[in-house]
Design brief:
Number of domains: 1
Strand order of the largest sheet: 3-2-1-4-5
Strand content: 25-35%
Shape: globular
Distance between the termini: 34 Å
Number of strands: 5
Structural class: alpha/beta
CATH architecture: 2-Layer Sandwich
């Protein structure tokens, strides 16, 4: 687990801080798992992936796509989920020279921009279309 690096940080430019999170999308016979990488300054989704499992691979693929397409951020923030603490995921961040920041346990507001994205996705699409 890594410390939360964003307390008091003023985000003033693109690629300064990115973050990621996973949300669950209910389906008729189970769940789909949606991961996104968002730039805190632009408040824009840089990459996303959908998976039928919670294995770390789809998160790693999403991160690598974002880095390929947009360069690399100075800081990458996530929660302490198993996918984001995995050697595969943190290995990409270390290899790219990206500082790792992690929310405190139970502190969803530490990653507020991704949480706001999930609220929009669910209320503007998932709950209306009812994929379950």
């Amino acid at each position: 687990v890594y410390p939360y690096l964003l307390r008091g940080v003023e985000v003033t430019r693109p690629n300064q801080v990115w973050s990621s999170d996973i949300t669950y999308v209910p389906l008729a016979h189970g769940w789909a798992y949606l991961v996104a990488v968002i730039d805190w300054y632009a408040r824009r989704v840089l990459a996303w992936r959908l998976s039928n499992t919670l294995e770390a691979g789809f998160c790693v693929d999403c991160l690598e796509e974002a880095v390929r397409a947009h360069g690399r951020p100075e800081i990458f923030n996530t929660d302490q989920g198993a996918q984001f603490t995995s050697a595969a995921f943190t290995g990409v961040l270390h290899r790219e020279g990206i500082a790792i920041s992690m929310d405190g346990r139970g502190r969803a507001l530490d990653n507020i921009f991704v949480e706001r994205l999930w609220r929009s996705v669910k209320y503007e699409d998932v709950y209306i279309k009812g994929y379950a």
